[in-house]
Amino acid sequence: MLDNKGKRSLAIKQEAIRLGFSSCGISKADFLEEEAPRLERWLRLGMHGSMHYMENYFDKRLDPRLLVEGAKSVVSLSLNYYPSEIQNADGFKISKYAYGEDYHYVIKDKLKELLSFIQETIGEVDGRVFVDSAPVLDKAWASRGGLGWVGKNNNLIARNSGSFFFIAELIIDLELEYDGPTTDHCGTCTRCIDACPTNAIEGPYVVNGSKCISYLTIELKDNIPIEFSGKLDDWMFGCDVCQDVCPWNRFAKPHQEERFNANRKLINMSKNEWQELTVETFNEIFKKSAVKRTKYSGLLRNIDFLKD
Asked: Residues that bind [4Fe-4S] cluster 2, according to the entry (predicted)?
């Protein structure tokens, strides 16, 4: 059994990489003092739009010890999803993270393996795995754990790999050796702010979620407001504009996760083919996909809005 914080931390990080994660950082499970006023202001200004669930569990979002009894460490992990091939330029666009199998399933499997490894090699450790499934401020914890910095587009950015990666956590009742945060390297760059088709990035580090194309095409269940007509830049599910223009993403390399590989039809479909999408083709292309969140009817709504 591993018997000190340093050895335990190193073993966890090595196992995380073996399981296919891109990086792993560890931080002390504590109250997120700096994020509290930012989250409160963001909610007060209504920047979460119709995502009313963001108003729930305010205290739990800021303190992991309220999610896991006796929590001492937050193990943050990243997993690359940058594809080796992108969609046909003539098609309506889907965010790269949704090309393959739903990341919730892929990452949760890896996280459970990592937790089992910790319990087998270290002993009785209690904890929970989190993949977008609970009130956890992923980017704040990943930043604390040194995986990158939160950029002006509110994405986590790593100097050696950019921002095309998922973030997940293990919150455990085990004290470990903690990593420190990295520094911000956005500098004077404003490419993400300048490129946003709907001006959702209202200033450095301030993203109005209710204007974001990802929100409009995924989270919003009502009709897309007419004021966004002609501004969605052919995105029918999600949006990658602020990442595509980020200089740090020149370091992004194709992922090695087979389950993230795209269906060939998705890559090659033209706008005309998308407009004639049937339920059968939708189910074939997006089997086990995150796109199922918006459902067939939701994707058709988005396509119709792009046609108008």
From this structure: 196, 212, 239, 242
